């Protein structure tokens, strides 16, 4: 009797050891491709922290399909050349899906590599090119440029009724795509475009081009590029005593924008999906609180949330299909309908385009906080 | 007309700090025939050191001008010392080696400083606090000039004049010029050439440090890898003016700033840099040694 008891105990023990060995040896690997260093380090680190937070929460609850989630990060520095190296490295690491990256250029460079390896890629990159390549592994987690451009033109031409509109962009594929679309949408809406031009991102001195813009006397200057340049443009407009309203595209939404613009930040308008603090959904409030508790800081921007949404959708797909087979997950994700994300409900269409996300225009207040000013339905 | 004046003010401001940084390239080249590729990074290091002093809160909130002066002095002294250390560790042991070895050493030093800044101050954009400087703007017609622009233009002109006086009207300046013409002959005349070279590596970076801190105060932001682009622009400014020639570096810096402003303002902002550099190529085709570069050409 006692011998039988020992044998069965040993068998049970061996079984437990074996399963735990499988459990430990065979995690689900999720990649994060993001700019951890460089100009957009702030954003990249936010994406990584958001993904790691969700992975930890799931692991604490017993994992996904009984397996732990392991996160592997590759720093692409926001550069296309580095992005291609990252993509190959993450593919070699055997990732199921890759969350990120922040810049459209880096996401574009990585896209074909993930597609060949059948790795799911979900990025906030808003360049319209990202979904035009026909890659079935790509899922955009933020709304595309075209949606933002339509809203922007509506705000400039019909909402605020600006009479003389100037548009400025940098040469990145994201900013150029957005400004081209805004120019087209403004024309479609019958707006009066008085200037359209470019800056070289990171060159810091924009007084020359702003002086030229000032001479055509616009009442609004729209900038489609990123916050380090946007903040400087706003400050240098003030220095040149330009009276035009500053309206920035979504990449200007970052806590650093107001710091760089300094006293000139107040009154600047930024167009984006609602800021983290303004997201009304309970899931978003919970995630924000967890993030603050885990890292002792605010997420840098909404893109921490949209990338988290991409990750959450992948997790939902694994749960729903009870599988980690891309051949099952990818069709499921393409059929995703009305998924409750942190940034509102969304669906994915056959090209991996995110459908559904409300834009807002908000004004920076004297204390650096945001106040939604358009559309009126969102201000109540 | 007001637009021309405004573009002139924009260009001279930027030209001021290009010129200050260019001086360091040209002084080192004049004496050693070495392009110190780490110079741009040393100058940007000054912006970070200055920022640390300015945000340290020494002397409380009302210290204002005193704190600003302290930031400039600490940054210039620290970067001057860094320049001397760089000369002693990275260049002096290679002085008799092949010229390429020193160039590689310079590039290595540049990466060392850049990544050092990243490790100490983080890879994120560092923002200078608002309200450090009086928020004053003067109007000239519809053109405007701000306090910080006046400070940069005046500060760089004064420093350039002081350097010119130092090199041309003091005994030590005479020693620098002598060492630039012929090191062996200078040594025979009793000049301590090693000390002259060390001094060039202190004075150049110290002036560049003021330029770097001007960059930080003007744009109110600094990131760890911006030394490369400022170093490149200043290097080009030194070449236009005639590398090795001190007034040439000043002229080259101001011209580069003005070219940039007028190219963006009158032709196309997308082609700003292409147009600027096409003009520079044109200058070099007409005068291959740079605008004021004759004396260097004789030496080579």
Give the helices and strands, then pairings.
The complex is a heterodimer of chains A (380) and B (300).
Chain A: H1 2-25, E1 28-34, H2 41-60, E2 69-75, H3 80-92, E3 97-99, H4 104-117, E4 120-123, E5 138-140, H5 145-159, E6 165-169, H6 173-188, E7 193-198, H7 207-215, E8 220-223, H8 227-239, E9 245-248, H9 255-261, E10 269-272, H10 282-295, H11 302-321, H12 326-334, E11 339-341, E12 344-348, E13 354-355, E14 360-364, E15 370-374, H13 376-379
Parallel strand pairs in A: 1-2, 1-3, 3-4, 4-5, 6-7, 6-8, 8-9, 9-10
Antiparallel strand pairs in A: 10-14, 11-12, 12-13, 14-15
Helix pairs in contact in A: 2-11, 3-4, 5-6, 8-9, 11-12
Chain B: H1 2-32, H2 39-55, H3 65-91, H4 99-121, E1 126-127, E2 137-140, E3 143-146, H5 147-169, H6 171-181, H7 183-188, H8 193-219, E4 221-222, H9 227-241, H10 246-267, H11 272-286, H12 294-299
Antiparallel strand pairs in B: 1-4, 2-3
Please provide a written account of the structure:
The complex is a heterodimer of chains A (380) and B (300). Chain A is α/β, with parallel strands linked by helices and 380 residues long. Chain A is built from 13 helices and 15 strands. Chain A has helices at residues 2-25, 41-60, 80-92, 104-117, 145-159, 173-188, 207-215, 227-239, 255-261, 282-295, 302-321, 326-334, 376-379; strands at residues 28-34, 69-75, 97-99, 120-123, 138-140, 165-169, 193-198, 220-223, 245-248, 269-272, 339-341, 344-348, 354-355, 360-364, 370-374. In chain A, strands 7-6-8-9-10-14-15 form a 7-stranded mixed sheet. In chain A, strand 12 (344-348) and strand 13 form a beta hairpin. The longest helix of chain A has 24 residues, at 2-25. Chain B contains 12 helices and 4 strands. Chain B has one domain: ABC transporter involved in vitamin B12 uptake, BtuC, CATH 1.10.3470. Chain B has helices at 2-32, 39-55, 65-91, 99-121, 147-169, 171-181, 183-188, 193-219, 227-241, 246-267, 272-286, 294-299, and strands at 126-127, 137-140, 143-146, 221-222. In chain B, a hairpin with a 2-residue loop joins strand 2 (137-140) and strand 3. Chain B is mainly alpha-helical and 300 residues long. In chain B, helix 2 (39-55) runs antiparallel to helix 3 (65-91), helix 2 runs parallel beside helix 4 (99-121) and helix 5 (147-169) packs across helix 6. Chain B has a two-stranded antiparallel sheet. Chains A and B meet through helix 7, helix 8 and helix 9 of A and helix 1 and helix 10 of B.
């Amino acid at each position: 009797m006692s011998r039988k008891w020992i044998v069965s105990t040993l068998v049970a023990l061996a079984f437990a050891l074996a399963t735990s060995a499988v459990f430990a040896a065979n995690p689900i690997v999720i990649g994060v491709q993001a700019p951890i260093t460089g100009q957009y380090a702030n954003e990249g680190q936010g994406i990584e922290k958001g993904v790691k937070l969700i992975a930890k929460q799931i692991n604490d609850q017993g994992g996904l399909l009984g397996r732990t989630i392991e996160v592997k990060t590759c720093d692409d520095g926001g550069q296309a050349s580095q992005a291609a190296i990252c993509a190959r490295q993450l593919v070699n690491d055997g990732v199921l899906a890759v969350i990120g990256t922040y810049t459209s250029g880096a996401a574009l460079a990585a896209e074909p590599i993930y597609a060949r390896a059948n790795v799911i890629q979900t990025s906030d990159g808003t360049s319209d090119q990202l979904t035009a390549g026909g890659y079935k592994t790509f899922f955009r987690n933020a709304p595309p440029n075209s949606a933002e451009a339509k809203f922007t033109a509506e705000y400039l031409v019909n909402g605020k009724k600006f009479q003389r509109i100037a548009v400025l962009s940098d040469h990145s594929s994201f900013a150029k795509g957005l400004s081209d679309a805004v120019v087209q949408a403004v024309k479609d809406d019958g707006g009066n475009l008085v200037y359209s031009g470019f800056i070289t991102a990171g060159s810091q001195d924009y007084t020359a081009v702003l002086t030229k813009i000032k001479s055509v006397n616009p009442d609004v200057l729209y900038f489609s590029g990123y916050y380090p340049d946007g903040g400087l443009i706003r400050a240098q407009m003030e220095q040149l005593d330009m009276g035009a309203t500053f309206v920035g595209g979504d990449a200007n939404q970052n806590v650093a924008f107001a710091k760089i613009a300094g006293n000139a930040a107040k009154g600047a308008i930024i167009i984006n999906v609602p800021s983290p603090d303004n997201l009304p959904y309970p899931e978003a409030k919970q995630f924000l609180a967890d993030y603050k508790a885990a890292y002792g800081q605010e997420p840098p921007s909404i893109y921490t949330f949209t990338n988290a949404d991409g990750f959450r959708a992948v997790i939902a797909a694994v749960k729903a299909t009870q599988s980690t087979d891309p051949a099952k997950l990818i069709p499921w994700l393409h059929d995703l309908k009305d998924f409750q994300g942190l940034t509102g409900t969304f669906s994915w269409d056959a090209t991996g385009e995110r459908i559904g996300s409300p834009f807002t225009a908000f004004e920076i207040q004297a204390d650096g906080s945001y106040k939604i000013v358009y559309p009126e339905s969102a201000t109540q | 007309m007001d637009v021309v004046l405004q573009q002139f003010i924009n260009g001279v401001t930027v030209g001021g700090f290009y010129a200050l940084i260019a001086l360091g390239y040209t002084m080192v080249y004049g004496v050693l025939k070495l392009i110190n590729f780490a110079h741009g990074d040393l100058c940007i290091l000054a912006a970070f050191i200055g920022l640390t002093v300015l945000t340290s809160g020494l002397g409380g909130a009302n210290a204002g001008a005193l704190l600003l002066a302290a930031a400039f002095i600490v940054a210039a002294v620290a970067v001057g010392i860094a320049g001397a250390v760089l000369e002693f560790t990275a260049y002096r042991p290679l002085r008799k080696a092949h010229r390429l070895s020193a160039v590689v050493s310079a590039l290595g030093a540049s990466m060392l400083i850049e990544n050092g800044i990243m490790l100490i101050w983080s890879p994120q954009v560092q923002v200078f606090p608002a309200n450090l400087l009086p928020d004053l703007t003067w109007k000239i017609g519809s053109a405007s000039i701000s306090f910080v622009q006046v400070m940069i233009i005046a500060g760089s002109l004064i420093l350039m004049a002081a350097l010119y006086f130092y090199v041309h009207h003091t005994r030590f300046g005479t020693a620098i010029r002598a060492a630039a013409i012929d090191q062996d002959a200078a040594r025979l005349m009793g000049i301590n050439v090693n000390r002259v070279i060390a001094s060039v590596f202190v004075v150049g970076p110290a002036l560049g440090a003021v330029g770097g801190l001007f960059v930080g105060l003007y744009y109110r932001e600094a990131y760890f890898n911006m030394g490369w682009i400022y170093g490149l622009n200043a290097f080009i400014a030194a070449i236009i003016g005639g590398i090795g020639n001190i007034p040439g570096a000043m002229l080259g810096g101001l011209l580069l700033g003005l070219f940039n402003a007028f190219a963006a303002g009158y032709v196309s902002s997308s082609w700003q840099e292409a147009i600027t550099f096409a003009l520079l190529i044109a200058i070099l085709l007409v005068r291959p040694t740079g605008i004021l570069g004759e004396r260097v050409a004789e030496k080579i």
